[in-house]
C-alpha cells in the first residue's frame, strides 16, 4: 500500500470547488441585487440552482476550508428564500413596505455574499 498523495489532484479539486463557489456566490449576488433594483427582479430559480449546486458539491468539500463556505451559502439561500417568500405578499398589498422589506433582506443577503466572497478570495473559511 502506498502513502503517496498526488498534490496536483488535490489542487485541482480545490480549484474546482473554488470555481463552483464563485458561480454560486455570483448567482446569490444576481438575486440580491435584482431584489432591490426596480424592474430587475431576478428569478427565484437562480436561488434554487445555487442551492442545488451547493448541496450536490458539499460532500466534495468535506474536511477542507471550503466546506464552511458550502454551509454558509446553503444557510444564506435558505434564510433569504424563506424571508423573500414570507414578505412577498407585501408587494401585492403595499408596494412601499414590500420594497423596504426586500431591501433589508437583500442588504443582509449582500453582506453574507460579500463576506463569503472576501474570505474565499483569501482561501479562508468564513468566520461564523
Can you describe what's shown?
The mean pLDDT is 84. By secondary structure, the chain is mostly helical. It starts with 6 loop residues before the first helix and ends in a 7-residue tail after the last helix. It is elongated. Helix content is 77%, strand content 0%.
Strand proportion, as a percent range, falls in under 5%
Q: Helix content range of the residues, please?
A: over 70%
Radius of gyration: 17 Å
Mean pLDDT across all amino acids: 84
The number of helical elements comes to: 4
Report how far apart the termini are.
40 Å
The coarse silhouette is elongated
Question: How is the main sheet built?
Answer: none
The stretches of 5 or more residues where confidence is low (pLDDT under 50) are: none
DSSP E strands, number:
0
Summing up helix and strand content along with how strands pair, one would put the structural category as mainly alpha
Q: Element order, helices and strands?
A: HHHH
Task: Set down the secondary structure blueprint.
Elements: H1 7-36, H2 44-57, H3 67-93, H4 95-121
Helix pairs in contact: 1-2, 1-3, 1-4, 2-3, 3-4
Task: Offer a quick outline of the entry.
By secondary structure, the chain is mostly helical.
Q: What are the main properties of this structure?
A:
128 residues; mainly alpha; 4 helices; elongated
Amino acid at each position: 500500500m502506498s502513502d503517496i498523495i498526488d498534490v496536483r489532484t488535490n489542487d485541482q479539486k480545490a480549484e474546482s470547488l473554488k470555481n463552483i463557489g464563485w458561480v454560486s456566490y455570483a448567482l446569490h449576488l444576481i438575486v440580491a441585487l435584482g431584489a432591490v433594483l426596480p424592474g430587475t427582479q431576478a428569478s427565484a430559480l437562480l436561488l434554487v440552482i445555487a442551492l442545488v449546486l451547493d448541496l450536490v458539491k458539499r460532500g466534495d468539500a468535506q474536511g477542507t476550508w471550503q466546506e464552511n463556505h458550502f454551509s454558509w451559502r446553503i444557510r444564506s439561500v435558505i434564510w433569504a428564500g424563506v424571508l423573500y417568500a414570507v414578505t412577498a405578499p407585501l408587494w401585492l398589498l403595499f408596494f412601499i413596505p414590500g420594497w423596504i422589506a426586500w431591501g433589508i433582506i437583500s442588504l443582509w443577503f449582500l453582506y453574507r455574499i460579500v463576506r463569503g466572497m472576501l474570505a474565499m478570495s483569501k482561501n479562508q473559511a468564513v468566520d461564523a
